[in-house]
Write a structure and sequence with these properties.
single chain, mainly beta, Fumarylacetoacetate hydrolase, domain 2, twelve-stranded mixed β-sheet, six-stranded mixed β-sheet
Length: about 280
Amino acid sequence: MRIARIQIVAGPHQGARTYAEVLLDGDGDGDTDPSYLPIADPFDPDTVTTIATSRPVPAEHATLLAPCRPRVILGMAHNTGPADRLLPPQAFHKSPHSVIAPGDAIALEAGHGDVDAEAEVAVVIGTPARNLTRENALAAVFGYTCANDVTDRAAQASDSLWTEAKSRDTYTPLGPWICTDLDPTDLTVQLGDDTGLGPRASTAGLARGVVDVLIYLSSVMTLHPGDVVLVGAAGPSRRLCPGGISRIIVPAIGELTNPVVTIGGAAASPLTMHRGAIPTR
């Protein structure tokens, strides 16, 4: 199952935001445009959807939002290959305010030119989880989505906590939706831009896979429904170029695409950076 968050932009429920099941061919006509069937908030079962309809919302009437609203975002440091297994596991925080949706712009501030995209699989937590084991770790997972762990390399070198490097506004694109029925052991991940695609990589090549990551993180803190964990970049990073696009492709999930822009000094308003594009996959 695929779960998205959408804003309805036309029709009787215009302006409403809701979670929705993604129907890749909901109208049965054989095309590839998705439609969206509104559902209750999967991370808060006490919340009932305000969209009283049993009819799917067509793609042209919806804009994809970030697929969840995490209160906590965690990433794994030095988890990019087998050699990193020699290092102890280490995590970092990313600000939840850095999350943007598919089609929203990654905004690079003037003077910050050494900024890279990193293609990752993100785990979305489904149940409260503490001290997970190898036997029950995946039971705590709601699903998986694509993530772009945007990183300012100069700030990363000067800030040992990586706050400046990882938590600037727009530095965590997520989407296009959450897939709930995947095996995360060997997911293909690919990073690209408007000039082409980089090499294929796999979560199987990470120093620590999803299970090991969740065991470690839940030994430190309780993970809660809707929290997001970026498990590490399986392949090489790619420099972001203003005026271009950044693409994260996980074939089992879909494609996350964001334009790249430059802004002057202070962060731009989200209204000026939002394109509202809907991915085709």
